[in-house]
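pasting for the record
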Amino acid sequence: MRGIFRLLAVLTVFAAAAFATGSAGAFTVGAPVNVTRDPLSENETPLAVNPANPQMLLSGSNDWNYNDGCGMYVSVNGGQSWSGALPEGYLPGITKYTNDPNVAGTGAYDAGGDPVVAFSPDGKTAYFVCQAFNFTPPYQIQMLLNRGTVTQNGITWQSTGLTPISTWNGNGKTKGGNGQFPDHEAIHVDAAGRIYVTWAQFNGQGTHSPVLVATSTDGGRSFSTPVKVTAGNIRNNQDQRIVTAPNGDAYLTFDNGLQGGKGTVFYVTKSTDGGATWSAPILFATLVNPVCIFPTYCFNISGGQFRAGGTYPVPAFDAVRNRLVVAYADIVGPYGQMYVTSASASDLTHWTAPRAIAPAPADQFMGEFGIAPNGRYDASFYDRRYTNNMLVDFTYATSADGGATWSNARVSQSSFDPSTWGVPSSNALGYRPFIGDYNGLVSRNDWAGLTWTGVAPPQPLNLEIYFARVTP
């Protein structure tokens, strides 16, 4: 019976995809692949595709097995199957430990996390940025880049000599509060091979969290001194990301908790000199009620509390229409919904009215967004429409007309309650409900790739990373 129900679930997913209509036309959603396949939790998964060999994909995670580390996963067959760095999946050069308690790590730190990934334009080098933490004084925190050499069979990573991007002492704190630490870093590589890494630096001064950018023009062997792009009352920032236009101009978006007021706004800033200088940030959106998913602090959707990404701006550049496009979640009516807005690359002061991507009487949150070279828009997000706003699933949406109309379909094959799954904790439950702060999405002309955090038995400590491929 269990097998029959599973088959019916698969057929339902494919039926929904086959009959998804609209300006984007029909598309096919491939069956989800379990990337991690182990008995303990992973979350927070980026995704990159090799531009020279689209059969090669790179992903990562916060891996909670044995000890916290940056899980690393590679597929050489378009996402049908995945392997990790040996031993057992941790990125080398970060932690003293591996995912195998009998094998020592090649790094110097107690833990690692918040992975982001990319490839060089020629496809010969992979980049993996991971935060590294020590839990003893002086609580050093370092953001490191590992350069992987791409081969036909996978990626060979450095075991030592990783490139430091930022180094801080935690000032007595390893996270939150008044500690000093980089957070929510993002990586982008432009067509010329320049690497951008941006992050919010929680600097120990209350709500100050300036947005910083460091760049590399030598393939990640060294990085520039970080440039601060926020100042004055533009503080309490995070969720910064960078995209570039074909002419090399860079655009950085971030969210901001209004200093001295209430609410959240989005800013954008632009660089025309490879990240050396940035324009004064322009406020381009004021949110009605951002989805805030952080237990006891601001949880504002129905159901049991859990931690996830909620609302953050995700930029992508539309080279066909010469526009900067941003997707995000907001609670405008009774439910959180995914929206998209855009501006001409030549005028970032005028933005279109937000348009709902896939309106439904249920909460949507934690969206990712990408634009294929041919101008097709791709979005993914957690979605509770399939269970009367009770449980979480994963949805893909697409538009072929610049976001005017959208088609969408369910990607996940099973629903779950994030408040009853999580990562190891010493609290009374034995777990902390936390499904990660971001997911992954890549857009190509012929397909889109999606990664997200789902679940698999045993409950509650087995969050798993999933991948699915969508074919227009």
